[in-house]
Amino acid sequence: MSVDWITVAAQIVNFLVLVWLLKRFLYRPILDGIDAREQEITQRMQEAVHAREEAETREQEYQDQIESLNLKQADMTETIRKEAEKQRDVLLAEARERLERERASWSIHLDEEKRKYTSRLHRVGASAILALTGKALTDLADETLEERMVQSLARRIEPMASDLRRAAGQAAEAVVTSHAPLSQAGQDAMESKLQEVFPDLSVRFEANDEQSHGLILRIGGAQLAWTVETYLDGLDKMIDAQLSSREGSGAQSDEQ
Questions:
Q1: What confidence score (pLDDT) does residue 179 get?
Q2: Which of 132, 128, 151, 129 lies closest to 140 in space, CA to CA?
Q3: 251 CB-contact burial (10 Å; exposed 0-12 / middle 13-18 / buried 19+)
Q4: For 130, how many CA atoms within 13 A lie in the half-sphere containing its CB?
Q5: Would residue 60 count as lying in a domain?
Q6: Are 76 and 6 in the same domain?
Q7: DSSP 8-state assignment for residue 23
Q8: Are 106 and 175 in contact (CB under 8 A)?
Q9: How far is the C-alpha of 197 from the C-alpha of 175, rounded, in Å?
Q10: Where are the transmembrane segments (predicted)?
Q11: Which residues are CB-contacts of 3 (< 8 A; sequence separation ≥ 6)?
């Protein structure tokens, strides 16, 4: 059996042509498509990785922001709580201070009212004592009392002689006034004492039943009185001074 080499060569050529045609028109597009698909898949995978990384970055940023907001919220809450406690303490301190001031003011007011009431009681008592004393002296006043007042007034003239001369000026007459007419002995004693101090002075005696019991000596612009009324006035001033001193001491004690 002989080999037809021409046919074999033709078959080989046909096979090579077929291979070239398959490679040219079939395998190349398929391989190009596969390569393009691989590149697309690779690109998408890279994009997915990038997107995941970006998402993770964004998530971390969001987490950081949330933590920062939580910290800020906690700080603000703590600050607000501390400020509220501080304001509460301030309000409580002001309320306590106001209460203490009102309590102290009320205590001072009560002490002042008590002191005023006590002072009024003292003054009412003093007025009653003065009234009773005046009534008693008026009821007991008689010629003997006025005679004693003559002696007392006569004793007071000499120590006050210089003041009386200065106040009397150029007066030439002295007037002695009593509630009831003085006895002759009383007039003589008073006139004798006055002329010892004022040798050229004449003395005139008068009686005035509207005057309180006692004697009043007038020489020009000078006047010297020793009566129940002047005695009561002196007693009233003394009592008033004592009460005023006590009130002043009480006020100082309240302030302290």
A1: 76
A2: 132
A3: middle
A4: 18
A5: yes
A6: yes
A7: I
A8: no
A9: 15
A10: 6-22
A11: none
Tell me how many helices (H) and strands (E) the chain has.
6, 4
Residue 219 — φ and ψ, nearest 5°?
A: -130, 105
pTM score, whole prediction? 0.39
* CATH code at position 220: 3.30.360
Torsion of CA 30, 35, 37, 38, to 10 degrees: 140
Check residue 179 and report its DSSP letter. S
Reported residue count of the chain is 256
Q: Within this chain, do residues 155 and 212 fall inside the same structural domain, yes or no?
A: yes
Domain contains 110:
no
Cβ neighbour number for residue 160 with a 10 Å cutoff:
13
Q: In a structure prediction context, what are the per-residue pLDDT tens digits for the chain, which is 256 residues long?
A: 566 777 878 888 888 888 887 777 777 777 777 888 888 888 888 888 888 888 888 888 888 888 888 888 888 888 888 888 888 888 888 888 888 888 888 888 888 887 777 666 655 655 565 455 545 555 544 445 566 667 777 777 777 777 777 777 777 788 888 877 878 887 888 788 777 777 777 888 888 888 777 778 888 777 777 776 766 666 666 666 665 666 555 555 555 5
- Residue pair 154/193 in contact (Cβ under 8 Å)? The answer is yes
Per-residue buried b or exposed e for 92-107, using 16+ beta carbons within 10 Å of the residue's own CB: eeeeeeeeeeeeeeee
Structure tokens at 87: 């304001």
Structural domain span for residue 156 = 142-243
